[in-house]
Amino acid sequence: MGRTNDTVKILAAIQKNMDKKSWPCIYGGCDQHAINSHLLQRHGVLDRVVENGHLYEVKRCDYYKWNRNPPIEFKMVGLNRAISLPLFCHEHDSRLFRSIEQDEIDCSDYRMQLLLSYRTVCAEIRKKEMNIEFLGRMKKSSTLQFLEDVIDMSITGNELGIRDLDGYKSLLEQELEKISHNFFFVCYRYPLVKVYASSVFSYHPNDAVARIADSCTVWDNGFVHIIPAEDCTCIILGYHNEHTNSLLQEYVVSWKDLDMASLGGKLTELFAARIESWGLAPSLYRRLSPSMTKRYIKYMSENACNYDISQYVDFNLFNGAF
Description:
Elements: H1 2-20, E1 36-38, E2 54-60, E3 72-78, E4 84-86, H2 90-96, H3 98-102, H4 110-139, H5 148-177, E5 183-191, E6 195-202, H6 206-213, E7 221-228, E8 232-240, H7 246-253, H8 260-273, E9 278-280, H9 282-287, H10 290-302
Antiparallel strand pairs: 1-4, 2-3, 2-9, 5-8, 6-7, 6-9, 7-8
């Protein structure tokens, strides 16, 4: 019990200091201070689902609650903090994304799809940089030496992830500089569901993971952006034409022509097994069955390190909610 209490205190102290850390702009060659950047813009996207200034997202629990509860929970967040990270300085955040921040949202526009994917790749890089910083601080603690092997493995995993994402960051920058249609995107439209998401995910058969980790090849990654529009929900899925496989392509097609019950199941699988960056309107959260939210949190807690693309989620978080 003593070790557990000491560990919790140290983790909480590290997190408190991490929250105060200033991060540099992630744009290449820029060392200016990064501001809080939304992965999906406030105006025209998040303002379609925000209610009384708030949204719900899945967040880490306070460390002091970990002994009593699962490590994650649904939390109400303010609009300013929703689906955001310190990514770009003010200049680059404004200049790079001006077209999608100021213009009418067109989910079928290739350049907009590229910009959304570029921003979410940068966000995943920053997440992993933050993980490495946190783990590095854990490693320096004499109290946490018993976790050293686990910490080292986690650092290596995050470093490999950054290497892969850096490759995609370069590919997207090249495509934005000169449009060559090296990426494929499709947009499916469904009746309005007050959820939002923007993320990148790997989609590899298990037997390919070790081979790719030992090479300089980037992973076969998919992109997903869920955009609540004025009268519908747009689900954008895509991948790079030279870094894909039949399973990923079939997965993208599997989102086509779903009924609402099947859509709820697909969203559940996506949010439970593929991505972290998502949220929903408070009114929709209140319509979720408490038993289903508990199953979702339990599944997430038990499968946080499960990257098997064939994992099966046998429940529908949104059952009866829309």
